[in-house]
User: Which sequence fits this backbone?
Protein backbone atom coordinates (compact mmCIF):
# COMPACT_ATOMS: atom_id res chain seq x y z
CA UNK A 1 0.00 0.00 0.00
CA UNK A 2 2.84 2.37 0.82
CA UNK A 3 4.55 1.63 -2.51
CA UNK A 4 1.27 2.16 -4.40
CA UNK A 5 0.73 5.48 -2.61
CA UNK A 6 4.24 6.72 -3.45
CA UNK A 7 3.85 5.71 -7.12
CA UNK A 8 0.45 7.43 -7.39
CA UNK A 9 1.47 10.63 -5.62
CA UNK A 10 2.93 13.63 -7.39
CA UNK A 11 6.75 13.75 -7.08
CA UNK A 12 8.01 16.00 -4.26
CA UNK A 13 10.42 17.69 -6.65
CA UNK A 14 12.48 20.82 -5.85
CA UNK A 15 12.09 24.18 -7.55
CA UNK A 16 14.63 23.47 -10.32
CA UNK A 17 14.57 19.69 -10.82
CA UNK A 18 16.93 17.78 -13.11
CA UNK A 19 16.46 14.32 -14.53
CA UNK A 20 18.35 11.71 -16.57
CA UNK A 21 16.84 8.51 -17.98
CA UNK A 22 19.50 5.85 -18.42
CA UNK A 23 19.11 2.66 -20.46
CA UNK A 24 21.59 -0.08 -19.59
CA UNK A 25 22.01 -2.54 -22.45
CA UNK A 26 24.40 -5.36 -23.20
CA UNK A 27 24.67 -9.08 -23.72
CA UNK A 28 22.95 -11.40 -21.22
CA UNK A 29 24.90 -11.80 -17.96
CA UNK A 30 27.14 -8.77 -18.55
CA UNK A 31 26.24 -7.43 -15.09
CA UNK A 32 23.48 -4.93 -15.88
CA UNK A 33 21.36 -5.72 -12.82
CA UNK A 34 24.42 -5.82 -10.54
CA UNK A 35 25.42 -2.35 -11.74
CA UNK A 36 21.84 -1.10 -11.30
CA UNK A 37 21.75 -2.39 -7.72
CA UNK A 38 25.08 -0.72 -6.93
CA UNK A 39 23.88 2.62 -8.32
CA UNK A 40 20.69 2.32 -6.24
CA UNK A 41 22.53 1.33 -3.07
CA UNK A 42 20.20 -1.60 -2.40
CA UNK A 43 19.45 -4.90 -4.13
CA UNK A 44 16.11 -4.62 -5.93
CA UNK A 45 16.96 -6.37 -9.21
CA UNK A 46 17.65 -10.13 -9.42
CA UNK A 47 21.22 -11.24 -10.07
CA UNK A 48 22.45 -14.66 -11.16
CA UNK A 49 25.34 -16.24 -13.00
CA UNK A 50 22.84 -17.71 -15.48
CA UNK A 51 21.66 -15.71 -18.47
CA UNK A 52 18.24 -14.04 -18.73
CA UNK A 53 17.73 -13.50 -15.00
CA UNK A 54 16.04 -10.17 -15.76
CA UNK A 55 12.77 -11.00 -17.55
CA UNK A 56 11.26 -7.55 -18.05
CA UNK A 57 12.21 -3.89 -18.00
CA UNK A 58 12.06 -2.37 -14.54
CA UNK A 59 12.96 1.10 -13.32
CA UNK A 60 15.26 2.00 -10.50
CA UNK A 61 15.26 5.51 -9.06
CA UNK A 62 18.24 7.38 -7.60
CA UNK A 63 17.34 10.76 -6.07
CA UNK A 64 20.21 13.01 -4.99
CA UNK A 65 19.56 16.62 -4.00
CA UNK A 66 17.81 18.24 -7.02
CA UNK A 67 18.61 15.39 -9.45
CA UNK A 68 16.78 12.17 -10.25
CA UNK A 69 18.38 9.31 -12.18
CA UNK A 70 15.91 6.84 -13.65
CA UNK A 71 17.68 3.56 -14.42
CA UNK A 72 16.02 1.36 -17.02
CA UNK A 73 17.27 -2.15 -16.17
CA UNK A 74 16.49 -4.24 -19.23
CA UNK A 75 16.76 -7.90 -20.25
CA UNK A 76 19.93 -8.80 -22.12
CA UNK A 77 19.69 -8.22 -25.85
CA UNK A 78 19.08 -11.59 -27.42
CA UNK A 79 17.94 -13.25 -30.65
CA UNK A 80 14.56 -14.95 -31.35
CA UNK A 81 16.33 -18.34 -31.47
CA UNK A 82 17.84 -17.92 -28.00
CA UNK A 83 14.56 -16.53 -26.67
CA UNK A 84 12.74 -19.68 -27.77
CA UNK A 85 15.43 -21.91 -26.26
CA UNK A 86 15.06 -20.31 -22.82
CA UNK A 87 11.22 -20.10 -23.03
CA UNK A 88 11.38 -16.30 -22.91
CA UNK A 89 8.41 -13.99 -23.38
CA UNK A 90 8.10 -11.79 -26.46
CA UNK A 91 8.79 -8.83 -24.14
CA UNK A 92 12.36 -10.07 -23.74
CA UNK A 93 13.00 -9.14 -27.39
CA UNK A 94 11.17 -5.80 -27.38
CA UNK A 95 11.82 -4.33 -23.89
CA UNK A 96 15.44 -3.21 -24.50
CA UNK A 97 14.34 -1.40 -27.67
CA UNK A 98 11.42 0.23 -25.85
CA UNK A 99 13.75 1.42 -23.10
CA UNK A 100 16.00 3.08 -25.68
CA UNK A 101 13.06 5.15 -26.94
CA UNK A 102 12.72 6.80 -23.52
CA UNK A 103 16.44 7.14 -22.68
CA UNK A 104 18.52 10.31 -22.49
CA UNK A 105 21.74 8.29 -22.20
CA UNK A 106 22.65 4.67 -22.88
CA UNK A 107 25.26 2.63 -21.01
CA UNK A 108 26.65 -0.28 -23.02
CA UNK A 109 27.98 -2.87 -20.60
CA UNK A 110 30.66 -5.35 -21.66
CA UNK A 111 31.95 -8.24 -19.53
CA UNK A 112 35.72 -8.07 -20.08
CA UNK A 113 36.27 -11.35 -18.21
CA UNK A 114 34.47 -13.32 -20.94
CA UNK A 115 37.16 -13.89 -23.56
CA UNK A 116 34.60 -15.37 -25.97
CA UNK A 117 32.52 -12.19 -26.29
CA UNK A 118 34.60 -9.26 -25.02
CA UNK A 119 36.38 -8.38 -28.30
CA UNK A 120 33.26 -7.19 -30.11
CA UNK A 121 29.78 -5.89 -29.41
CA UNK A 122 26.98 -8.31 -30.24
CA UNK A 123 24.97 -7.84 -33.42
CA UNK A 124 21.89 -7.04 -31.32
CA UNK A 125 23.71 -4.29 -29.36
CA UNK A 126 25.08 -2.71 -32.56
CA UNK A 127 21.64 -2.77 -34.16
CA UNK A 128 20.14 -1.12 -31.08
CA UNK A 129 22.78 1.64 -31.07
CA UNK A 130 22.49 2.26 -34.82
CA UNK A 131 18.72 2.58 -34.50
CA UNK A 132 19.12 5.44 -32.00
CA UNK A 133 22.37 7.24 -32.96
CA UNK A 134 21.06 10.53 -31.54
CA UNK A 135 21.13 9.16 -27.96
CA UNK A 136 24.53 9.74 -26.28
CA UNK A 137 26.21 6.43 -25.45
CA UNK A 138 28.89 5.46 -22.93
CA UNK A 139 31.00 2.29 -22.94
CA UNK A 140 31.28 0.57 -19.54
CA UNK A 141 33.85 -2.22 -19.20
CA UNK A 142 32.73 -4.40 -16.30
CA UNK A 143 34.52 -7.07 -14.21
CA UNK A 144 37.97 -5.52 -14.78
CA UNK A 145 39.02 -6.96 -11.40
CA UNK A 146 38.96 -10.43 -12.98
CA UNK A 147 41.56 -9.51 -15.61
CA UNK A 148 45.09 -10.54 -14.70
CA UNK A 149 46.66 -8.82 -17.72
CA UNK A 150 45.44 -5.22 -17.57
CA UNK A 151 47.01 -4.23 -20.91
CA UNK A 152 44.22 -6.25 -22.56
CA UNK A 153 41.95 -3.31 -21.71
CA UNK A 154 43.85 -1.18 -24.24
CA UNK A 155 43.11 -3.66 -27.01
CA UNK A 156 39.47 -3.96 -25.98
CA UNK A 157 38.96 -0.19 -25.92
CA UNK A 158 40.40 0.11 -29.43
CA UNK A 159 38.23 -2.72 -30.78
CA UNK A 160 34.98 -1.80 -29.00
CA UNK A 161 35.19 1.85 -30.10
CA UNK A 162 36.42 1.22 -33.67
CA UNK A 163 39.30 3.48 -32.63
CA UNK A 164 37.09 6.55 -32.12
CA UNK A 165 35.86 8.13 -28.86
CA UNK A 166 33.90 11.38 -28.62
CA UNK A 167 34.38 12.05 -32.33
CA UNK A 168 38.18 11.80 -32.21
CA UNK A 169 40.47 9.09 -33.48
CA UNK A 170 42.35 7.05 -30.90
CA UNK A 171 46.07 6.51 -31.26
CA UNK A 172 47.46 3.75 -29.06
CA UNK A 173 50.87 4.37 -27.56
CA UNK A 174 52.24 1.61 -25.37
CA UNK A 175 55.47 1.64 -23.40
CA UNK A 176 55.35 -1.69 -21.58
CA UNK A 177 58.74 -2.92 -20.47
CA UNK A 178 58.64 -6.52 -19.41
CA UNK A 179 60.83 -7.54 -16.51
CA UNK A 180 61.03 -11.26 -15.94
CA UNK A 181 62.46 -10.83 -12.43
CA UNK A 182 59.39 -9.01 -11.17
CA UNK A 183 55.84 -10.29 -11.00
CA UNK A 184 54.43 -6.87 -10.20
CA UNK A 185 51.80 -5.58 -12.60
CA UNK A 186 51.93 -1.82 -13.14
CA UNK A 187 48.79 0.30 -13.14
CA UNK A 188 47.17 1.05 -16.45
CA UNK A 189 46.06 4.55 -17.36
CA UNK A 190 43.96 5.42 -20.37
CA UNK A 191 43.88 9.09 -21.30
CA UNK A 192 41.95 10.85 -24.00
CA UNK A 193 43.78 14.10 -24.73
CA UNK A 194 42.40 17.12 -26.58
CA UNK A 195 43.77 18.18 -29.96
CA UNK A 196 46.79 20.54 -29.65
CA UNK A 197 44.83 23.68 -30.53
CA UNK A 198 42.40 23.08 -27.64
CA UNK A 199 44.91 22.35 -24.92
CA UNK A 200 44.83 25.92 -23.64
CA UNK A 201 41.39 25.12 -22.27
CA UNK A 202 42.69 22.05 -20.45
CA UNK A 203 42.79 18.41 -21.59
CA UNK A 204 39.73 16.23 -21.57
CA UNK A 205 40.64 13.04 -19.71
CA UNK A 206 38.86 9.79 -19.07
CA UNK A 207 41.48 9.00 -16.46
CA UNK A 208 40.21 5.49 -15.79
CA UNK A 209 42.89 3.73 -13.81
CA UNK A 210 42.68 -0.02 -13.50
CA UNK A 211 44.92 -1.08 -10.64
CA UNK A 212 46.85 -4.34 -10.68
CA UNK A 213 44.78 -7.23 -9.43
CA UNK A 214 44.65 -7.43 -5.67
CA UNK A 215 46.65 -10.21 -4.13
CA UNK A 216 49.31 -10.40 -6.82
CA UNK A 217 52.83 -10.60 -5.43
CA UNK A 218 55.04 -7.52 -5.71
CA UNK A 219 58.81 -7.80 -5.65
CA UNK A 220 60.02 -4.39 -4.51
CA UNK A 221 63.68 -5.44 -4.59
CA UNK A 222 63.54 -6.23 -8.30
CA UNK A 223 64.45 -3.74 -11.00
CA UNK A 224 61.03 -2.10 -11.55
CA UNK A 225 60.78 0.16 -14.55
CA UNK A 226 58.01 2.68 -15.09
CA UNK A 227 55.48 1.71 -17.70
CA UNK A 228 52.51 3.56 -18.98
CA UNK A 229 49.92 3.22 -21.72
CA UNK A 230 47.75 5.88 -23.20
CA UNK A 231 45.17 6.39 -25.86
CA UNK A 232 45.67 9.76 -27.52
CA UNK A 233 43.00 11.18 -29.77
CA UNK A 234 43.21 12.92 -33.09
CA UNK A 235 40.33 14.76 -34.70
CA UNK A 236 37.99 12.58 -36.74
CA UNK A 237 34.66 13.05 -38.43
CA UNK A 238 31.56 13.24 -36.24
CA UNK A 239 29.10 10.38 -35.76
CA UNK A 240 27.04 9.24 -38.72
CA UNK A 241 24.24 6.80 -39.33
CA UNK A 242 25.29 3.22 -40.00
CA UNK A 243 23.32 0.80 -42.14
CA UNK A 244 23.06 -2.98 -41.81
CA UNK A 245 25.84 -3.42 -44.37
CA UNK A 246 28.15 -1.21 -42.27
CA UNK A 247 27.33 -3.10 -39.06
CA UNK A 248 28.38 -6.43 -40.58
CA UNK A 249 31.95 -5.18 -40.80
CA UNK A 250 32.00 -3.45 -37.41
CA UNK A 251 33.18 -4.95 -34.12
CA UNK A 252 32.58 -1.85 -32.03
CA UNK A 253 30.67 1.44 -31.95
CA UNK A 254 32.56 4.62 -32.99
CA UNK A 255 30.15 7.07 -31.30
CA UNK A 256 30.84 6.49 -27.59
CA UNK A 257 31.30 9.72 -25.64
CA UNK A 258 33.11 8.26 -22.64
CA UNK A 259 34.65 5.03 -21.36
CA UNK A 260 34.41 3.73 -17.79
CA UNK A 261 36.12 0.71 -16.26
CA UNK A 262 34.70 -0.80 -13.10
CA UNK A 263 33.91 -3.91 -11.08
CA UNK A 264 30.17 -3.68 -10.37
CA UNK A 265 30.01 -6.68 -8.03
CA UNK A 266 32.65 -5.18 -5.74
CA UNK A 267 31.43 -1.62 -6.24
CA UNK A 268 34.80 -0.44 -7.57
CA UNK A 269 34.59 2.84 -9.52
CA UNK A 270 30.77 2.74 -9.47
CA UNK A 271 30.72 6.07 -7.61
CA UNK A 272 32.83 7.61 -10.40
CA UNK A 273 30.21 6.56 -12.94
CA UNK A 274 27.39 7.74 -10.65
CA UNK A 275 28.93 11.21 -10.34
CA UNK A 276 29.25 11.40 -14.12
CA UNK A 277 25.58 10.45 -14.57
CA UNK A 278 24.44 13.09 -12.07
CA UNK A 279 26.43 15.69 -14.01
CA UNK A 280 24.72 14.70 -17.28
CA UNK A 281 21.20 15.34 -15.94
CA UNK A 282 19.23 18.06 -17.69
CA UNK A 283 16.48 20.38 -16.33
CA UNK A 284 13.17 18.53 -16.32
CA UNK A 285 10.37 17.26 -14.05
CA UNK A 286 10.89 14.26 -11.81
CA UNK A 287 8.89 11.12 -12.56
CA UNK A 288 8.90 9.64 -9.05
CA UNK A 289 8.61 10.65 -5.42
CA UNK A 290 12.02 10.95 -3.75
CA UNK A 291 11.29 7.93 -1.50
CA UNK A 292 10.66 5.60 -4.46
CA UNK A 293 13.52 3.17 -5.14
CA UNK A 294 11.93 1.10 -7.92
CA UNK A 295 8.82 1.01 -10.07
CA UNK A 296 8.34 -2.68 -9.25
CA UNK A 297 5.62 -3.81 -6.88
CA UNK A 298 6.71 -5.70 -3.74
CA UNK A 299 5.24 -8.89 -5.25
CA UNK A 300 7.37 -8.46 -8.39
CA UNK A 301 10.50 -7.95 -6.28
CA UNK A 302 9.63 -11.11 -4.32
CA UNK A 303 9.11 -13.17 -7.50
CA UNK A 304 12.37 -11.92 -8.99
CA UNK A 305 14.44 -12.73 -5.90
CA UNK A 306 13.01 -16.25 -5.62
CA UNK A 307 13.65 -16.83 -9.33
CA UNK A 308 17.22 -15.64 -8.83
CA UNK A 309 17.76 -18.46 -6.31
CA UNK A 310 16.10 -21.00 -8.60
CA UNK A 311 18.53 -20.05 -11.35
CA UNK A 312 21.42 -20.31 -8.93
CA UNK A 313 20.66 -23.77 -7.54
CA UNK A 314 18.91 -25.65 -10.38
CA UNK A 315 20.89 -27.11 -13.31
CA UNK A 316 20.76 -26.27 -17.01
CA UNK A 317 17.33 -25.27 -18.36
CA UNK A 318 15.31 -26.55 -15.36
CA UNK A 319 14.68 -23.20 -13.61
CA UNK A 320 13.35 -21.57 -16.80
CA UNK A 321 10.33 -23.93 -16.71
CA UNK A 322 9.24 -23.08 -13.14
CA UNK A 323 5.98 -21.14 -12.70
CA UNK A 324 5.62 -19.10 -9.50
CA UNK A 325 2.18 -18.68 -7.87
CA UNK A 326 1.85 -16.56 -4.71
CA UNK A 327 -0.78 -18.11 -2.42
CA UNK A 328 -0.38 -15.84 0.61
CA UNK A 329 0.84 -12.27 1.17
CA UNK A 330 -0.17 -11.01 4.60
CA UNK A 331 1.10 -8.94 7.46
CA UNK A 332 1.57 -10.94 10.67
CA UNK A 333 0.59 -9.88 14.20
CA UNK A 334 4.06 -8.42 14.91
CA UNK A 335 4.38 -6.57 11.59
CA UNK A 336 6.27 -9.37 9.85
CA UNK A 337 5.51 -10.25 6.23
CA UNK A 338 4.09 -13.76 5.67
CA UNK A 339 4.59 -15.11 2.15
CA UNK A 340 3.64 -18.52 0.77
CA UNK A 341 4.58 -19.28 -2.82
CA UNK A 342 3.91 -22.42 -4.85
CA UNK A 343 6.55 -23.41 -7.41
CA UNK A 344 5.04 -25.41 -10.29
CA UNK A 345 7.37 -27.57 -12.38
CA UNK A 346 6.59 -29.54 -15.58
CA UNK A 347 8.04 -32.91 -14.47
CA UNK A 348 8.33 -34.98 -11.31
CA UNK A 349 12.09 -35.29 -11.87
CA UNK A 350 12.32 -31.49 -11.75
CA UNK A 351 10.34 -31.51 -8.51
CA UNK A 352 12.85 -33.91 -6.95
CA UNK A 353 15.75 -31.66 -8.06
CA UNK A 354 14.06 -28.60 -6.58
CA UNK A 355 13.29 -30.24 -3.27
CA UNK A 356 16.68 -31.91 -2.99
CA UNK A 357 17.75 -34.74 -0.72
CA UNK A 358 16.08 -34.25 2.65
CA UNK A 359 14.60 -30.96 1.42
CA UNK A 360 17.99 -29.25 1.52
CA UNK A 361 17.74 -27.38 -1.81
CA UNK A 362 14.28 -25.88 -1.28
CA UNK A 363 15.17 -24.99 2.32
CA UNK A 364 18.31 -23.16 1.22
CA UNK A 365 16.42 -21.26 -1.49
CA UNK A 366 13.74 -20.19 1.00
CA UNK A 367 16.33 -19.13 3.59
CA UNK A 368 18.45 -17.05 1.18
CA UNK A 369 15.45 -15.50 -0.58
CA UNK A 370 13.88 -14.64 2.78
CA UNK A 371 17.07 -12.88 3.90
CA UNK A 372 17.25 -10.86 0.67
CA UNK A 373 13.59 -9.86 1.05
CA UNK A 374 14.26 -8.65 4.59
CA UNK A 375 17.10 -6.48 3.27
CA UNK A 376 14.81 -5.00 0.59
CA UNK A 377 11.65 -4.47 2.66
CA UNK A 378 13.47 -3.65 5.93
CA UNK A 379 11.15 -5.87 7.98
CA UNK A 380 10.97 -9.49 9.15
CA UNK A 381 9.91 -11.90 6.39
CA UNK A 382 8.66 -15.45 6.84
CA UNK A 383 8.82 -17.19 3.46
CA UNK A 384 7.39 -20.64 2.79
CA UNK A 385 7.93 -22.38 -0.55
CA UNK A 386 5.91 -25.36 -1.82
CA UNK A 387 6.65 -27.47 -4.91
CA UNK A 388 4.09 -29.12 -7.20
CA UNK A 389 3.96 -30.67 -10.65
CA UNK A 390 1.90 -28.62 -13.13
CA UNK A 391 -1.49 -30.22 -13.71
Assistant:
Amino acid sequence: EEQDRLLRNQPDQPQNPKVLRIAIIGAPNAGKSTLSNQLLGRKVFPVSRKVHTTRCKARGVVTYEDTQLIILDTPGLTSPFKAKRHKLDEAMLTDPWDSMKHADLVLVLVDVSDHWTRNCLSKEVLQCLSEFPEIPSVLVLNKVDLLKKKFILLELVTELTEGIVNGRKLEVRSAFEHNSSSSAKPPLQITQASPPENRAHGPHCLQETAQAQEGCSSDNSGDKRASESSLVTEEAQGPKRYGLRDLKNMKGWPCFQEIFMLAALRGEEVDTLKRYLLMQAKPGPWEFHSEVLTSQSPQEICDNIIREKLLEYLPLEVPYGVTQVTEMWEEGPSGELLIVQNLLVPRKSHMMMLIGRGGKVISRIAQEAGQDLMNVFLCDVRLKLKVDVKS
Remarks:
- The chain has a mean pLDDT of 79.
